[in-house]
Amino acid sequence: MRTRIKMCGMTRSEDVEAACQAGADAIGMIFYPPSGRYIEVSQAEKLAQHVSLAVDKVALFVNPEVNFVNDVVAATGADILQFHGDESAEFCQQFGRRYIKALRVKSAAEVAEKIAEHHQADAIMLDAYVKGVPGGTGQQFDWSMTPESIRHKLFLAGGLNADNVGTAIQALRPYAVDVAGGIEQAPGIKDIDKIFAFAEAVRQADALFIENSS
């Protein structure tokens, strides 16, 4: 199985175009004002026009109002919604879009409980727990706390870059890997070389896995 790639925190059209050219399967835009990668809806509407048809547009929220989510979907045509707050499964399901529920890994028991609550989510994203920060910390978590049962729909995040994503793929075989800081010069400002290097590292890891499995 090919590992999917999501490149998140996009704010510039040239970065979106590079991500699509590099082979990203999804690009993410963050609608959470405290984030250094926050994007206004009007700006995101223009950015969405640069996304290739084969690439999913992901809109990321943290405890949003219903009307705000609807406004973002209408403006951007978001294919997937990603929720990083305390949103209930009922809340996440009401928008008629696929959704990713992001969970910060604090303990294996807590992760298992949250996964059970969001069993209807199209994907589960696991990220490092940092107090007061809903995601995008750039830190890794203990991968051993990842339940085997969700790996078929696991989006792995947390400190990934071209140097370590291969190790992560070999260890967990996630459905997808998610990167933001690992392809940046500064928050929201991507590095084109890092974008292509990350995508190539994922492809190499997949090829190695196939080779070792044969």
Structurally, how many domains make up the residues?
1
How many helical stretches? 7
CATH topology: TIM Barrel
CATH class, anyone? Alpha Beta
Biggest beta sheet summary: 8 strands, parallel, barrel
Observed structural traits:
alpha/beta; 214 residues; two-stranded antiparallel sheet; 8-stranded parallel barrel; 7 helices
Question: Any overview of this molecule?
Answer:
With 214 residues, this protein is α/β, with parallel strands linked by helices. The relative contact order is 0.17. The chain has helices at residues 13-22, 41-48, 66-76, 89-93, 108-117, 165-172, 192-213, and strands at 4-7, 26-30, 56-61, 80-83, 98-105, 123-128, 154-156, 176-179, 184-186, 189-190. The mean pLDDT is 91. Helix 1 (13-22) packs parallel to helix 7, helix 2 packs parallel to helix 3 and helix 6 (165-172) runs parallel beside helix 7. The longest helix is centred in the C-terminal third of the chain and has 22 residues, at 192-213. It is globular and about 50 Å long. It has a single domain, classed as TIM Barrel, CATH 3.20.20.70.
State the gist of this model.
The protein has 214 residues and is an alpha/beta fold. It is built from seven helices and ten strands.
Give the secondary structure arrangement, pairings included.
Layout: E1 4-7, H1 13-22, E2 26-30, H2 41-48, E3 56-61, H3 66-76, E4 80-83, H4 89-93, E5 98-105, H5 108-117, E6 123-128, E7 154-156, H6 165-172, E8 176-179, E9 184-186, E10 189-190, H7 192-213
Parallel strand pairs: 1-2, 1-8, 2-3, 3-4, 4-5, 5-6, 6-7, 7-8
Antiparallel strand pairs: 9-10
Helix pairs in contact: 1-7, 2-3, 6-7
Keywords: Amino-acid biosynthesis, Aromatic amino acid biosynthesis, Isomerase, Tryptophan biosynthesis
InterPro entries: Aldolase_TIM, PRAI_dom, RibuloseP-bd_barrel, TrpF_fam
EC number: 5.3.1.24
